[in-house]
Every structure is written in structure tokens, then in C-alpha cells.
Amino acid sequence: MARWKPNASERLAIAALDLFAERGYENTKVIDIAQRAGLTKSTFFRHFQDKREVLFGGDTLAGLLTEGIAAAPVTASPFEAVTHALDTVGSQVFTAARRDFTARRQAVIAANPELREREALKGLGLTASMTEALRHRGVPDLAARVAAELGALALKIAHERWSDPAGTEEFSAVVRRALGAVRTAGVSSLH
Amino acid sequence: MARWKPNASERLAIAALDLFAERGYENTKVIDIAQRAGLTKSTFFRHFQDKREVLFGGDTLAGLLTEGIAAAPVTASPFEAVTHALDTVGSQVFTAARRDFTARRQAVIAANPELREREALKGLGLTASMTEALRHRGVPDLAARVAAELGALALKIAHERWSDPAGTEEFSAVVRRALGAVRTAGVSSLH
Fold first, then answer.
1. Which of A120, A121, A146 sits opposite B189 (nearest CB)?
2. Closest alpha carbon to A67 in A48, A49, A52, A87
3. Predicted local confidence at residue A96, as pLDDT
4. What sign for the dihedral angle of Cα A106, A108, A113, A114?
5. What superfamily would CATH give domain A7-58?
6. pLDDT of A40 over the 60 cut
7. How far is A111 from chain B (nearest CA, A)?
8. Which residues of chain A form CATH 1.10.10.60?
9. B140 vs A contacts (CB less than 8 Å)
10. For B124, nearest residue in chain A (alpha carbons)
11. Alpha-carbon Rg of chain B, whole angstroms?
């Protein structure tokens, strides 16, 4: 398995996850997370606006999706540009070394209403970022919104499936299958 | 214009909207809203869990969408069942007499991050309700999710357009056009 050398924000996320699992989300303070990660509270707040945010990696994912859509070939359709962006996040964020972390993270989020709420809002932010990036390519507003919604749905489904700790497939394969399934379901729903 | 006789929860919503506009959301307390509506604080909390909720009408919309999907003809496709549900909310919630209220409500929500967040989460709840109602009709999970996402997008677009105070068209006409546009954009995005 590839080595994963966490940076400061990742060390904070891992420390937070350990503490949330040990004592519960409510009983963990920002200072506890920083200390466990061997960092200071002010370092924590340079990376994350609050305790809820620590499991959501700031705006990394939104940024990568935006870049992935911008970098898709000029001839790509909106849905192909979204596919390109999801491949990008697969290779850069959802690597094999992170599957176990992601599975534990999902369990903590599922158990906490505040974290579920933040996750839902983060998902809407990703859709908005993809819509904006598609518009920048000259895609008409409504087509951009639809392609971004369907891409976000495929990302969500792929993330659920890939973060199953029993899984072995790479994210890119899982997300390609999810995109294909969403496309098929979309075409049949719309007829 | 049709007369609209507000019940307790609607009187509370109107009072809240007036107060938020007059003194700002932050400077308005639940007791102020109840008093302005000629009701008690405990009546407020029988209808809404907190101050943020007062502009979102509890679960009325989710319930109507669920009923509308259930009541669609058995032969209806997922997208047609969603269309039937959006017609139902158009005739029961987004009536001509409520356009002005809705326009003022949208302005207050747009100005307040807490209310925008609640609105976003409410939107996700509507998508989840429609997905569940479609599954109850025997629609496969993914087709249900896609049809619900596209229906929610059409509802959002129609709501934005219809709540323009300069508009004169009925909600049902606006939402039908939005559904048609989403369908066309969906078909072209997916090819």
C-alpha cells in the first residue's frame, strides 16, 4: 500500500477522528485535537474555522473539482468534464491509503447530527463549485446545474461504496461505474 | 385575488417576517414573534422547533410532495410522478395570494447566513422525501434518486422565478416550464 505522509491539516483530522471515537464529538475540544496532533490551537484555526470543519478538509475537494472541470478537453461535454473532475479527485484525494480513514470518518459523521448537517452543506458547496466551473467553460446555466447535480450524486454514491472498508477497488473504477449508472438512470427517468 | 386566511403557523410566519424586516433577524426573539401574532410562546414551539424554522413551514411541503408522488397514476414514469407532485404543491402552497409573502421571505433568507443554511438543508430534505416516495412506488433506488434530484432542481428554479414580485404567471405554469427545461438540459448533458 502507498505511504501516506500527512501534513498539518491531515494530522489534525486524524487526531480529531481518534478523539471523537474515544470520547465522543461533544466531549472533544479544539485544544484537545491540537495537542493530540502535536500542534497549537492557533495552527488549528489557521486550517479550520471550527471543530465541525476538521473532518471536511477545508475547500480542497471543491478546488480540485473546479480544476478538474477547467482542465477537461475543450471538446468534452458537460458530463464528460464532470467525469474528468471526479477522476482527478480519485487520484489525488481518495487514494487506497485513505480508505480506512474515510470509513472511520463516515462512521463518526453518521453518528452526529451536527456533522451530518455540515456534510450536507459541504455537498451543496461541491455542486455549486462544479456548476460555476462548467459555466466558466461556456456551458449554459441550466445544463451546468443539471450536469453538476448528477455529478454530485455520482460522487456521493461512489464515496459511500468506496469507503466500505471491505472494498478493494480503486476509487476511479467505483466512480466510473456510479457515473454510468447515474447516466443510465437519468436517461430512463427523463423519457 | 383569492383571499388567504392564515392559520396559527402562518400568522407566526407573517409576524416573523415583519419583525425580521423591521429589526433584523438577530434582534428578534421568539417571544416577540408570538406576541406580534397575538399568540403565546408555547404555541410557537408547538409549531416550530426554533426561530430559524418559522419561515420554513415545518414539514408541510415535504408531506405534500410525498402525497403528490403517491397519488400519481400507476403508469406514470418517475419524472411524471415528480411532475404530479410539483403540480400539487403549486395548487396548495404557491398560490397567487402568497406570491408577495414568498418574495419578502426570500429577501430575508438571502440576507441571513443562518437562514440560507436552513433553507439549503430543507431543500435536501425535500429531495430525500421525493426519493423515498418514488421508492415506495417501486422505482429502483438510483432512478428514484436521479428523478428526485432533477425534480428538486426544477422546484428550486420555479420557486426563484415565481417569487419575483413582478411576475404574474401561476406557479403551475412556471414549474412546468422549469421541468421541461431541466429535462431538455438533462437529456443533452447525458449524451
1. A146
2. A87
3. 85
4. negative
5. Homeodomain-like (1.10.10.60)
6. yes
7. 18
8. 7-58
9. 185
10. A120
11. 17
Q: What would the pLDDT profile of B126-141 be if each residue is shown by its tens digit?
A: 999 999 999 999 999 9
Distances (CA, A) of B101 to B6, B16, B25, B52: 12, 11, 16, 17
Identify the CATH number of the domain defined by range B59-190.
Answer: 1.10.357.10
How many residue contacts between A and B have a Cβ separation below 8 Å?
75
Q: What is the 3-state secondary structure (H, E, C) of B61-108?
A: HHHHHHHHHHCCCCCCCHHHHHHHHHHHHHHHCCCHHHHHHHHHHHHH
Using CB atoms within 10 Å of the CB of residue A89, give its burial: 0 to 12 exposed, 13 to 18 middle, 19+ buried. Answer: buried
pLDDT of residue A1: 47
Q: How buried is B76 (Cβ within 10 angstroms: 0-12 exposed, 13-18 middle, 19+ buried)? A: middle
Average pLDDT, chain B: 90
CATH 1.10.10.60 in chain B, residues? 7-56
Decide which of 3.40.50.300, 3.50.50.60, 1.10.8.100, 1.10.10.60 is the CATH code for B7-56.
1.10.10.60
Asked if A145's CB is within 8 angstroms of B153's CB, the reply is yes
Query: What are the start and end residues of each CATH 1.10.357.10 domain in chain A?
Result: 59-190
Q: Which amino acid is at A74?
A: V
**Residue A3's pLDDT is what?**
55
> Which cell is B149 given?
434530484
ipTM, 2 decimals? 0.81
Closest residue, chain A, to B179 (C-alpha)? A190
